[in-house]
Design brief:
The chain contains 25 helices and 19 strands. It is of the alpha/beta class.
């Protein structure tokens, strides 16, 4: 995986701006730990940081193609195209010659052959930019689900782009300004497609491409979810899902560097790991390496909360024994989670504060540890979204709330009556933001986009809508988080369940099939029943763990006290000091402490973010 950055300006010569382009590229150095390169000529500058995965020796970027001794196109690319070998064979038959084994060159040659339609032929996770020298045009594209990020800022005569906002902020043309809309995106758990937190930035939409020329920017859709008839019965559906998973995992095992799986001991990651283990043994005679994260004494002293019913470690260990994996147990402690430098690095990796606190920190530390062993990790993300795994998908009150069901669920939590992460902010500010109104309007807009089939009954229509808004408004938040926290260490995280063939198929699978055994994720459970132990198959969904050590909460309280006692705290004018004092005097109930903690985590991170990024609030 890599970081890409660039600058196109048709109104000026960018050759004197090498230092600025270098600064934009340097901002992404952690995404690419193996190499770095620039290409600067006339109206265009491209930067790249590389974590080598395929063709380690020959895949350096920016990568140029020449014809008759002259450069005709240059690419900077982040991602993996899993069908690159098939495309290379097809392109060779059409007369293209290759000088590397990399998928990067296949992407560039695909553009030269098919132009802006090339993205339709690429299967994988990617974000890339190609400068077409002959046409003097810049072509940007992002994968179908938006697994790989790509931000941009429009200029009067061109564009800036980068894998992360920090690359754009490294250019003096972009200010760290944040409006009310930006704050809404920051606090929201239902994201607006294409909108960024910073005022002058946007994100290339998933399944879209941009062509930037002297006449402006053309935005094209090359992929979108469609409603199609589902012709398979339940047995055929299960068989097809298994067939797809076998093919997807096999393709995603392609790498010239060490590869592993992230194994939580839940159904999703266990299914991927079992199939990976089978293929690795069959093809290479090697055991797959697996990783699980836990905290010291967590499994022994675990206390269930409202969404976590069991610790991961015992189930992951059982799964590892079942497939005879090379299993690694990552042990974190409270001191790791409380380390100020680490918590700052987590914030800097994401370019914004979040409510997730130690969940983000432990995820970040997990990626750091995995990277010491492997450069690629397969993960179980996206299964809940496509197979129907979230608890709020089964609560009529939430489904009929007139808003995103997960945001309605936030308000029902005992520790979050004002909404997730918003409880300690000034209520005047919250009234300005009107998050409930924002969610309601956003939800109506999302529902208007949903592709339906004629003749759907009421339940099927509702659950198709829930599936759509989950994939387009909830999932982007998780994918962005996963990318940032893994790529902060140059670790490539692959998400087999995000394969568009599987997403399309499951989007059109009837809800009654998805719950045919009366449980969540019925199809997935049935599809891998022969590969996964019964205890893991029947385990109730449990999200990423949170620390249950009260010392962590005491640390947060200490930092919160220091914040409100420091007149120079930039966030102080935006906070509800009375609510903060109440929180400090009456800590939340132990069973829901992690939910209440989200308000503190967001408040502390928001203050640090304003200081670190010199945020200019326009509210």
């Amino acid at each position: 995986m890599c970081g890409i950055a660039g600058w196109a300006d048709f109104g000026r010569d960018l050759t004197p701006e090498r230092a600025t382009l270098q600064a934009m590229t340097d901002a992404l150095a952690k995404r690419g730990v193996d190499d770095q390169g620039l290409w600067l000529r006339g109206h265009i500058g491209l930067g790249h940081t590389r974590t080598a995965i395929i063709d380690v020796a020959g895949g350096a970027q920016p990568l140029a193609v020449e014809e008759d001794g002259s450069t005709i196109a240059v690419i900077v690319y982040n991602g993996e195209v899993y069908n690159f070998k098939q495309l290379r064979t097809e392109l060779r038959a059409r007369g293209h010659e290759f000088r590397t084994r990399s998928d990067t060159e296949v992407v560039l040659r695909s553009y030269l052959e098919w132009g802006s339609d090339c993205a339709k032929r690429l299967e994988g996770i990617f974000a890339f930019a190609i400068w077409d020298v002959r046409r003097e045009e810049l072509f940007l594209a992002r994968d179908r689900l938006g697994v790989k990020p790509l931000f941009y800022t429009r200029l009067p005569d061109g564009i800036l782009f980068g894998s992360e906002p920090k690359a754009l902020l490294a250019n003096p043309l972009v200010r760290p300004a944040v409006t009310l809309d930006g704050l809404r995106e920051l606090f929201a758990t239902a994201k607006t497609p294409g909108r960024a937190v910073f005022r002058d930035m946007q994100a290339v939409l998933p399944g879209h491409s941009l062509t930037v020329g002297r006449d402006g920017v053309v935005d094209r859709t090359y992929w979108a979810l469609e409603a199609r008839p589902h012709t398979d019965d339940i047995k055929g559906t299960i068989a097809h899902v298994r067939e797809l998973l076998e093919d997807i995992v096999l393709r995603e095992l392609e790498a010239d560097v060490p590869l592993c799986t992230a194994l939580s001991g839940g159904l999703d990651s266990s299914a991927i790991t079992a199939i990976a283990a089978k293929w690795r043994w069959k093809l290479d005679g090697e055991r797959v390496r697996t990783f699980v994260t836990t905290f010291d004494t967590y499994a022994q002293n675990f206390q269930p909360d409202d969404v976590r019913f069991s610790p991961d470690e015992p189930y992951a260990a059982e799964m590892a024994r079942h497939i005879s994996s090379d299993h690694v147990r990552i042990m974190l402690n409270t001191r790791d989670l409380m380390d100020p430098r680490t918590r700052l690095e987590v914030l800097l990796a994401q370019d914004m504060p979040t409510t997730l606190g130690d969940m983000d920190t432990s995820n970040y530390l997990t990626s750091r540890e995995i990277k010491t062993h492997s450069t690629v990790a397969l993960a179980g993300e996206v299964a809940d979204e496509i197979f129907g795994g979230y608890n709020w998908m089964f609560v009529p009150e939430l489904l009929n709330a007139g808003t995103f069901p997960w945001t309605a669920n936030e308000l029902r939590q005992p520790g979050s009556p004002r909404g997730q992460g918003r409880g300690l902010f000034d209520q005047g500010l919250m009234r300005k933001l009107d998050m409930e109104g924002f969610y309601a309007d956003h939800y109506s807009q999302a529902l208007a986009e949903v592709p339906h089939q004629e003749g759907e009954d009421a339940e099927e229509r509702q659950m198709r809508s829930v599936s759509y808004v989950t994939l387009t408004r909830w999932l982007p938040m998780l994918l962005d988080r996963d990318d940032r926290l893994s790529m902060a260490h140059g670790l490539e995280l692959r998400v087999p369940y995000a394969d568009h063939r599987l997403v399309e198929y499951m989007y059109n699978t009837p809800w009654m099939f998805k719950t045919f055994d009366g449980r969540e994720k019925s199809i997935l459970r049935a599809a891998v029943r022969d590969l996964v132990p019964g205890t893991v198959l029947d385990r109730k969904k449990s999200p990423w763990p949170v620390t249950q050590d009260p010392a962590y909460t005491r640390m947060l309280h200490g930092e919160l006290t220091a914040l409100i006692n420091d007149p120079s705290s930039p966030a102080l004018p935006l906070l509800d000091v009375d609510a903060i004092r109440h929180t400090l005097e009456e800590p939340s109930d132990r069973s829901n402490e992690w939910i209440s903690r989200m308000h503190i985590e967001m408040t502390l991170q928001f203050n640090t973010w304003m200081r670190q990024y010199n945020v200019e609030l326009e509210i």
